[in-house]
């Protein structure tokens, strides 16, 4: 009989350490990556080495944080929908009390709306402490929806989820308004490190970023994205730390900036949709607790601080992998040689074992 509760094993390694500073954490830490793509480990490791050779390391700035859930209500007509939306926005204090009544940690911090014909889409925005906040936001939105249907005339139930959130889909709204943690990471790499460790130049990386990440993605019709492979690092990090891995869909939306500063390289990654937490579903697994503890993300802190620390470490990990890959792609043949060699070595090690 098939075991329906088996755990799928994904190879995991710790890479680094990498150096981080900024408005959330100042630390040097290794990071766990669970992946079948074995070349990712040394690639991120090379970026981490660069971060250790830069004076400030990776400067990670948490810009914003919010979890969202959208609900859908049907109005008798568009005018009624508009009146309902204005009434809802005028009752913020009252709605905040509704949320406080159903959760210790959730706080309503914003309400946005969109009207299409006689349909009213409401996008509730919450602070959710150390949780990523999926269930917390849905619970609070359910209570809000019930309250609104009882107190606002002319509207009826449409759906507890109206896809205006937007959860696990690549959309413009998340990049514009944010969902999860919005983190910007920056690294100033000295010229000698660019040449000695990355085997390239700042000018070459800047040119590749413009042609590949910016122009190539534009021509492909990308949605608020201009990066090479944010998703690779995020998936590895999400699986290693017990996150909902499907959130890499919106999480991998983000933009890379690169500037040649007299031979030094300024390199930055903006990730507006990092959805992650240190408590909640998936965090009770033994290996996840071990990894979060080693990352310093299960300490006694104010609610939300552990999740913020985890988010900036994740964002810094993304920068390390992004920088290393772009550097490799400035040199003909380097990327493929690395994949062939590393994957051959990995397979040989498995046979030898």
Q: How does this model look, in words?
A:
It contains 12 helices and 9 strands. 43% of the residues lie in helices and 25% in strands. The longest helix is centred in the last third of the chain and has 25 residues, at 305-329. A hairpin with a 2-residue loop joins strand 8 and strand 9. It has helices at 40-53, 78-89, 92-100, 134-151, 172-177, 191-196, 202-220, 230-240, 248-251, 286-294, 305-329, 334-352; strands at residues 12-22, 27-34, 58-75, 107-116, 119-127, 155-159, 180-189, 255-261, 264-274. The chain is globular. Strands 1, 2, 3, 4, 5, 6, 7, 8 and 9 form a 9-stranded mixed β-sheet that branches. The relative contact order is 0.17. It starts with 11 loop residues before the first strand and ends with a helix. With 353 residues, it is α+β, with helices and mostly antiparallel strands. The model is unreliable at 348-353 (pLDDT under 50).
Primary descriptors:
353 residues, single chain, globular, nine-stranded mixed sheet, alpha+beta, 9 strands
Using only C-alpha atoms, the radius of gyration works out to: 22 Å
Count of strand segments: 9
Q: Main sheet, how many strands, which sense, barrel?
A: 9 strands, mixed
Helical residues, percent: 40-55%
DSSP helix count? 12
Sheet-strand content, in percent, reads: 25-35%
Q: Unreliable stretches, pLDDT < 50, 5 or more residues?
A: 348-353
Overall morphology: globular
Q: Let me know the average pLDDT.
A: 93
- What is the CA–CA distance across the termini? 29 Å
Order of helices and strands: EEHEHHEEHEHEHHHHEEHHH
Q: Name the structural class.
A: alpha+beta
